[in-house]
Amino acid sequence: MNRDSTSSSTSRFSSLLSPAPQVGSSRSSTFPIPLPTPSLPPLPANSKRTALIYDRAVTKSRGAEVSAGAWAFLFSEIVQYTQKRVSGIGEFEKRLNILGYRVGTRLLELLPLRDYLFPLSSLRSPPPPTRTLRLLPILSYVHSTLYRYLFGRPADSLEKSTENEDEYMIGDDDMVITRGVEVPRDMSELSCGALVAGIIEAVMDGAGFPARVTAHSVPTIPHPRRTVILLKLDPEVLAREAAMVGAGK
After folding, report:
1. Taking the CB of residue 135, how many other CB atoms lie within 10 A of it?
2. Contact 93/190 with Cβ under 8 angstroms?
3. Which of 64, 87, 162, 232 is the most buried (most CB within 10 A)?
């Protein structure tokens, strides 16, 4: 609402609430209406006024709110803070996982609601958020939608284990959050991607697909920073999936 409409609205309500002046009376009982605040003075030549965050479109700046340098500094402080309060690699990754879990519980509610209220394209009207009961759609959601929101791109791979029916893997050849982290040789088994594993675990649990999610550093020659997110599903998820397949749903 602009200033003119606000001023006219205030005047309209003031006139309704104020009694009409008495005939022959020299005093008026109407409440004084404050004058509108003066507009901002003109800027000097060759100058630009700084835009406020409220002036920007809601969907235009998705995924571009935090610079990589700011995030690297923040994550570095998180890692250092955690390292001083743990006694082993397992406890280190568990604490990072818990921190990511808290983020994931919020994203699970935020992303479907934001896509429904503010669709990226005005040419489509997305359906209301619904809950999926099948395993492949939720894994695809994590691999593409969730990952794209976090890092601006989908994950590099989504694979199913050939040995265990309850294991799936999400591969990231160059995880953004680990680019500025150099793991010491005596802690070579540590994967700071445990933060992302915690986010994914919260989304899976909240969507009704409980799983144990862990992160593992699997460097290769072309991708020395490759990280694999391992999802180990609960038996109840596989039982439900088999029942739905048998029912033809």
Report:
1. 19
2. yes
3. 232
Residue carrying structure tokens 């959050």: 177
Give the three-state DSSP class for 100.
Answer: helix
pLDDT at 249 over 80: no
pLDDT greater than 60 at residue 112: yes
Give the Cβ contact number of residue 155 at 10 Å: 23
CB neighbour class for 189 (10 Å; exposed up to 12, middle 13-18, buried from 19): exposed
pTM of the predicted model as reported, rounded to 2 decimal places: 0.71
Going by C-beta distance under 8 Å and a sequence separation of 6 or more, which residues neighbour residue 76? 180, 181
* Of the candidates 150, 160, 159, the residue with the CA atom closest to the CA atom of residue 196: 150
pLDDT digits (tens, 9 = 90+) for 230-242: 999 999 999 999 9
In what order do the strands lie in the sheet containing 211-217? 157-160, 167-172, 227-233, 211-217
Structure tokens at 10: 């205030």
Query: Is 128 a residue whose pLDDT tops 70?
Result: no
Task: Residue 126: name the closest of 107, 145, 140, 143 by CA.
Answer: 145
Q: Count CB neighbours of 31 within 10 A.
A: 10
- Residues in Cβ contact with 161 at an 8 Å cutoff, skipping those fewer than 6 apart: 167, 168, 169
Residue 217 near residue 227 (C-beta atoms within 8 A): yes
Closest CA to 107 of 176, 177, 193, 200: 200
**Is pLDDT of 35 > 60?**
no
Joined together, the tokens standing for residue 205 give: 């649990």
CA 86 – CA 235 distance, rounded (Å): 32
Q: How far apart are CA 191 and CA 214, in angstroms?
A: 9
- Cβ atoms of residues 203 and 101 within 8 Å: no
